Structures are given as C-alpha cells and as structure tokens.
Amino acid sequence: MIWITIDRTLDIPLTRQVYEQIRTQILNGELVAGERLLPIRELASHLGVSRNVVVEAYEQLLAEGYIETRPGSGTYVAEGAYLSQQARKDYLSFFEMQHLNEETNDFIDFRSGIPALDMFPRHIWGQTAKRVCKETPHSIFGYDYPEGRIELRHILSRYLKRTRGVHCHPDQLLITSGATQALSLIAKLLLSPGDKVMIEDPITREIQTIFSSTGAVLHPVPVDEQGMKTDLIPLNKKPRFIFVTPSHQFPLGGTLPIQRRIQLIEFARRVDCFIVEDDYDSEFRYQGVPIHSLQGLDPNRVIYIGTFSKILSPALRLGYLVLPPSLIKRCKDLKWFTDLHAPSLQQLTLARFIDERHLERHIRKMKKNI
C-alpha cells in the first residue's frame, strides 16, 4: 500500500509531491519490484486530487523506469529500481554537518591574500553591472574569444602602464579566471617532464604543485629580506623559466631591488629563458606608490601575471596574463581548450569599473584601512 501525504501549503506542485514520494519509496525498497500500484482513479480519490495529477506523476515515473505497465493488469514497480541508501545517507549527513558548522561556528580566517570582503564596493559594482547588462548588444550573451573582451584589454593595458609600468599592447593581454589559471596555462604552455624551473624559496605550496604536476623539476633559490638572492642562481642550469614575486615576495614580503632585477634579466637573456612575474597584490603598500613591474624592463622576456582576487574579490574570478609576442598564439589556443573564455559580462563590468576610476578609488580607500 502506498502511503502518500499531500500538503497544499507547500510551494511544490501536487504532481511533484506524488512523484517524489513514490520514487523515494521505490528507491528505499518500501515498494518492492513487482508490487502493484493503486489504479490512477483510486489513488486520486484517496489523495483528494484530480486524476490528471496522478496521471502526470505515473507518466514521469514510467519515463524514468521506476514503474512499468502491464496491459490489462495494471501498473507495477519495475525490477532493478531499488538502491541501498545507507551510503547516500552518510554522505548527506556529512555535508549537512559541514554546512551546519559553517553556519554556526565563529572562526578567525588566517588565510592570506583575501581582501576585506565587507569593503567590496557592492553598490557601485551593482550599478555598473546593471548598466552593462542593459546597454550591451545581444551578442554579449553568446560565446566569446579566449583572449577576453577587447574593451577590457584596451582599458587594462592603459591602467597597467599608468600604475605598474607594464608595457604591452592589448593583444598581449589574455584574460584568465584568476592567477591560478594563469599559472596553469604557463605550466602547460612551457613545461614538459624533466624541464627545469627556478623558484623562490620559500614560496607557496600551490605554486610548487602547479609546476611540478607537469613533471618539471623545481630548483629553489633562497630568499632574503630583499627577495630572491640572484647571486645564488646556479649558472650551470638552464631553466624554462624563473618564477619570482619581485614587488612583494611571498611569504617574506621583500621587494627585489633594481640591481637584482637586472641580474635576473641578464641571466635569463644569457640562457634564453623566460621570467614569470607574479604581481598578485602590489597595489597595496603601507607607504608610497606601487613598485614598477619587472616586465617593464624587458617585455619580450617577462611573462606578467595579475589578478583582481586580491584587490577586489576572489568571487569575480578574473585575472590576466601579459605575454611576450612569441607566446600569444599558443596561449590563446590553450585557453580555448581550457574553458573557451572568461565570463563576458563580468569582463565588461570590470572594464567600466576601471575606466571610470572606481578601482583606483577603491584601492585608495582600502589602503587607508591597512
């Protein structure tokens, strides 16, 4: 006998209520294979609903294979529709418990690189996004290009030149889903098993994992209070690239002086390798203006990585790569295979946000609270 209750106060269609309850009873084994279900008219009368409600519920169960009809006999529970629910219950209870912990427990988040989320300029961002959504052509809702919106790349190239001393044409910019994707693209683009990569020591585990996942061999170079000790770079090794955070070394915080920057570039030129510059949060400084980029000293040798996760919000999932001309075509192709393109509406909203100087005002406001 089917036991079903109908609750007309719920915002769930009656057909859905009937379907869900029968389906659950079959999956749980409460209705066993071969068991005959009540005729449509009889069940509708029992529940006090129209015949069509039961007809639609039965049709959905039949389409999904939970039940079968036997001409002249009736409707029966199909074979093979029972699934032991113990594992599923354990799975749900675990995640429900995790969600409950997140909702109820107060904790201090010691993770680095997360901006003050309560200071995100919601009102201005929301207004800008609304204007973008209303004013852009219908084509914006279709597929886009892997390198990113030309509007954002033009505005971003001017912004980087003005604020970071980055020299690049808009065509050298590739919009990514944050710095992690940018690093992954570089690793896939340049590294093969056995290739050498020089990295700062110490550095985040995440960076090491991304590069070593390609089979590359990592060679750490010690760091002091001024960043990578370039005089300790092993001269007998030829890496595919050298990874540095020259404006704000992570995790020690040093700034690479011009003498070491020149040493680094001269070494890269001598062995013919690239330098990967991760400029993750250099807009935020206790004193003075941001340090000029390493890329500005040798645009053909340095791959520059930036992200808006550290200065606006990780939820935007927007970052960028500035590539030497020799790598642009291959990296665009790789980006296309990865995810087609970054979200178009987010890109246009960010483009206006930067162009109207909201980003720079937000950074100034944030720096006052450091």
- Mean pLDDT across every amino acid position: 89
Order of helices and strands: HHHEEHHHEHEHEEEHEEEHHH
Main-sheet strand order equals 3-10-9-8-7-4-5-6
Beta-strand proportion: 5-15%
Looking at the structure, the CATH topology of the largest domain is: Aspartate Aminotransferase, domain 2
How many domains? The number is 2
Number of helices in the DSSP assignment: 12
Query: Major sheet, described briefly?
Result: 8 strands, mixed
CATH homologous group name of the largest domain = Type I PLP-dependent aspartate aminotransferase-like (Major domain)
Distance between the termini: 67 Å
Q: Structural class of the secondary structure composition?
A: alpha/beta
CATH class of the largest domain: Alpha Beta
Number of strands: 10
Tertiary shape: elongated
Radius of gyration: 29 Å
- In percent, how helical is the residue content? 40-55%
Poorly predicted runs of 5 or more residues: none
CATH architecture of the largest domain: 3-Layer(aba) Sandwich
Describe the structure.
This protein has about 375 residues and is of the alpha/beta class. The protein has two domains: about 1-105, Winged helix-like DNA-binding domain superfamily/Winged helix DNA-binding domain (Arc Repressor Mutant, subunit A, Orthogonal Bundle); about 120-370, Type I PLP-dependent aspartate aminotransferase-like (Major domain) (Aspartate Aminotransferase, domain 2, 3-Layer(aba) Sandwich). The chain is built from twelve helices and ten strands. It has an eight-stranded mixed beta sheet, sandwiched between helices. A two-stranded antiparallel ribbon has the order 1-2. Helix 1 crosses helix 3 (about 50-65), helix 2 (about 40-45) packs across helix 3 and helix 6 crosses helix 11 (about 345-355). The chain is elongated, with a radius of gyration of 29 Å. The termini are far apart. The relative contact order is 0.12. The mean pLDDT is about 90.
